[in-house]
Amino acid sequence: MNSIASKTPSFLSNPKKHHFIDGEWRPSVSGEVIETRNPSTGEVIATLARGGQADVDVAVASARRAFEGRWSRFTPSQRHALMMKVHDIIEKNGDDLTLLETYDMGSPVSRANSVKDRVLQMIAYFATLTSSCLGETIPNSLPGNYFTMTIKAPLGVIGGIIPWNGPLVSQWWILGGALATGCTVVLKPAEDACLSVLRVAELLVEAGVPKGVVNVVTGLGAEAGAALAAHPDVDKIFFTGSTETGKEIIKASAANMKRLSLELGGKSPDIIFADADLEKAVPGAAMGVFANSGQICFAGTRVFVERKIQNEFVERLASFTKGLNVGNPLDPNVQLGPVVSQRQLDRIMNYIDIGNKEGADLVAGGSRLGAGLAKGYFVEPTVFTNVDNNMRIAREEIFGPVISVVPFDTADEALRLANDTVYGLGGAVWTSNISMATKMMHGIKAGQVWVNCYGLLDVAVGFGGHKQSGYGWKGGSQHVEGFLYPKAVTMNAG
Ligand code: ADP
């Protein structure tokens, strides 16, 4: 029996895609398009509107009109009810949306249910925040009879620039906060994976979200993305992507001093002590990198292993890695799909080459997959050992399935090496010693630390970056703060 899904996502029945602006499909003003490919086959699956300044202007104007229009009169309870309708329509279309993500960026169908659950949890959680936009009443010392308070007002038009490594999830950090607070949005998804973002925008209107509240402009980062980042009528940019591009966004934001929330790159440490339960630590550390084919910003790509267990750990890690099922993401038995693009594949292969030349020992993977997968962008999950923390493979973000194992002798050395990076997104420790776990938890300089697990995130807890991994907390009850500004009110009470 062939267990490989034979369905194609309904959204691909028309492969000519436009921007989604003011509730309508609109071609780009220039008439130009770009192509998007299925990373499993290299085939073009759709054309996308190539957005530029003129398209961004129209989308921002639509978002501004919607912000000032009937959307501004929705009460918290009406926004909550609407978000629950959105929840239901996304649930109803969940299988089709995750399949679209498989075609667009190679996400394995074996992960579809967990992706769907995560999206639904996010929408349900953000819906609860509609009534959490709280100000304060503040006792004051003003002469006379004055009443003072702060209220929280929605910021306005939010620009969302998102990456290609999981847009079905990442768009909700922006959509959830905007719908909960009454903001409006222009999203610029990444050129390599736009389709689920376009489809969700259409579904939102179907659920009853007023036209213009959510707009999507597709195109290249240097064109549509840069135009959005610099736009004078955008109040805030939520950006997820590379640290390099994050710095460009900071510069572009200066003209109208827009607010920013930046989730940037990482080179996260994963520290394994000799007393760790290797039955859990080996698969935990491996999948802390290999899940989503290594295309995760908080991936624990620098695995620090206490020297006395280095040989055993590396042997087990290499054997686990070689046993992973890499292949057609439509096959439900496949654990790792392709990486998103030829450009990304070339980047990863280049780093593998650099690792070999730098003198690290390659103990698993290292090659592009051929045979039936040769037309797609498949790379073997790869492990280098005896890596020095100063090598480029230990310093630069590869964004692919490549682990660097670095040995250490003492806890202080492990911490020093772990923090010897410009990034600070995530980090983990595996040990059965609670005081060691506590020392590491406090010592790792990152926005997120895991103990005896890796990569678990809950929307109610939230996360954020430190150092050059960015700033701005996502998720948790503080999430709405990123979409609001405080206003102090002083009232003469007579
Ligand atoms: P990657 O190099 O892995 O694609 P990027 O940080 O460049 O990561 O991309 C993340 C998102 O930022 C994408 O949507 C991309 O189109 C967009 N982008 C790229 N360059 C710019 C830019 N100069 N200004 C605004 N957005 C950009």
Could you write a compact summary of the structure shown?
This protein is α/β, with parallel strands linked by helices. It contains 14 helices and 22 strands. The model has no long low-confidence stretch (mean pLDDT 97).
What does this protein look like?
The protein has helices at 53-68, 76-92, 94-105, 112-128, 167-181, 195-207, 221-230, 243-253, 278-290, 310-322, 342-358, 392-395, 411-419, 434-443, and strands at residues 19-21, 24-26, 33-37, 44-49, 136-137, 146-154, 157-161, 184-188, 214-216, 236-240, 259-263, 269-272, 302-306, 361-364, 382-385, 402-408, 423-424, 427-430, 449-451, 466-467, 470-471, 484-492. The protein has 494 residues and is of the alpha/beta class. Strand 12 (269-272), helix 9 (278-290) and strand 13 (302-306) form a beta-alpha-beta unit. Helix 1 (53-68) packs parallel to helix 7 and helix 3 runs antiparallel to helix 6 (195-207). The longest helix is centred in the first third of the chain and has 17 residues, at 76-92. The chain is globular, with a radius of gyration of 23 Å. The protein starts with 18 loop residues before the first strand and ends with a strand. The mean pLDDT is 97. The protein binds adenosine-5'-diphosphate.
